[in-house]
Predict the 3D structure of the following.
Amino acid sequence: MAKYIVLLGPPSVGKGTQAEILAGKTSLVHVSSGDLFRENIKNNTDLGKQAKSFMDKGELVPDDVTIAMVKDRISRPDCKVGAILDGFPRTPVQAEALQKMLAGVKGEVNVVPFITAAPEVLVERASGRWTCKAQGHIYHKKFNPPKVADKCDIDGSELYQREDDKAETVARRINIYFEQTAPLVDYYRNKEKLVEIDGTQSIDQVTDALLSAIKR
Ligand code: AMP
């Protein structure tokens, strides 16, 4: 049975950073709905054009558009053994859709690590976050700086601040998380999939907690 891990938690809690590390330590690919949208925006696709206005405001892209995009990604061969889902699902409708799409590829959600941190921590993390232009690798000016200023350690591309990481938009994204995504905590707790992880620990400590949650 293919193994799918859903990383749940508020924006900027470290899901992207951890998903990248976990993908390097397991056979599972990192599937980030935010990265897929950003890739489409960069390539100026119809999907990118549809998503951009919602993303720039810090709002969620409509469920139907998001679900179709993730379904297409999950159906590719590299997801056959499973994937680490980062940023999807973000609404109860998406969670139901995920269950259906995984049944179609003989997979299931094995575990849902729920990474937590207080809103002030999230604002600090988002406002110091720098993202690589080429592939979306993530840095933080204070907590996880690149070796050479403004350059990605992995591919050497330029780092930039995401439009939606600017202070006003971050606050909006956090509110939207509480309104629309937080209900998934109970949804997965009721299915006995949830493992709570303190996201204020160091990057290495969070990785260790995630690895033991995944091995469960
Ligand atoms: P992220 O990179 O996960 O912070 O996502 C960046 C933005 O992409 C979000 O603020 C939304 O506008 C959009 N987005 C990403 N994933 C989803 C999703 N599952 N549902 C709706 N919108 C999403």
User: Anything to note?
Assistant: The radius of gyration is 16 Å. Strands lie at 2-7, 29-32, 82-86, 107-116, 129-132, 138-140, 159-160, 194-198. Residues 11, 33-34, 37, 54-55, 58-61, 66, 87-88, 90, 94, 164, 173 surround adenosine monophosphate (CB under 6 Å). The CA atoms of residues 20 and 30 lie 6 Å apart.
